[in-house]
Amino acid sequence: MARRRRTLAKEIERFSCELISNVTDMDVSKLNRISDSPELDINFRNDKDETVLHVAANEGRADVVALLLSRRQDIDVNAKADGKTPLMRSIIRGHYDVLEVLLLQRADYIQVNGEPGSRQWSPLHLAAIERLA
Predict the structure, then answer these.
(1) What span, in angstroms and rounded, lies between the C-alpha atoms of 86 and 112?
(2) Using CA atoms, how far apart are residues 34 and 5, in angstroms rounded to an integer?
């Protein structure tokens, strides 16, 4: 029984890694079918500590972002490597359609990243720097 659980856990991890690495080219209808799979951990993190939502926001895939949020993807998750949320990434990359989707779904635009004592930025700070505010 324990061996079967380990095998299943490895399969779920492989499946989730494959999803993250293919999100930029993936057809939304295919992603919709995949995201219905009970094997998929929608909040899985890759080796860069990114979720599918981070990658989709970074690549400007508003359609994928909307689908992931409808599947209860954590909207304000920080990537530990750079401390950025999907909202921050969409601002930095200038993906205004993704920014709109995230804000309409109530992404936190005040949450700061960084360690206490270091420079901390919120999405609102980044928008001001990028002259979006």
Answers:
(1) 13
(2) 21
In this predicted model, what pLDDT tens digit does every residue of 56-106 receive, in sequence order?
Answer: 999 999 998 998 898 888 888 887 778 889 999 999 999 999 999 999 999
User: Domains of the chain: which residue ranges?
Assistant: 2-108
CA dist list (Å): 89 to 16, 47, 71, 82, 99: 21, 18, 20, 10, 9
pLDDT of residue 14 exceeding 70: no
What's the number of CA atoms in the CB half-sphere (13 Å) around residue 70?
Answer: 12
Pick one of 1.20.1250.20, 1.25.40.20, 3.50.50.60, 1.10.10.10 as the CATH number of 2-108. 1.25.40.20
Q: What rounded mean pLDDT belongs to the chain? A: 79
Sequence-distant (≥ 6) Cβ neighbours of residue 125 within 8 angstroms? 112
Q: What is the pTM of this model?
A: 0.78
Compute the distance between CA of residue 126 and CA of residue 51 in angstroms, rounded to an integer: 21
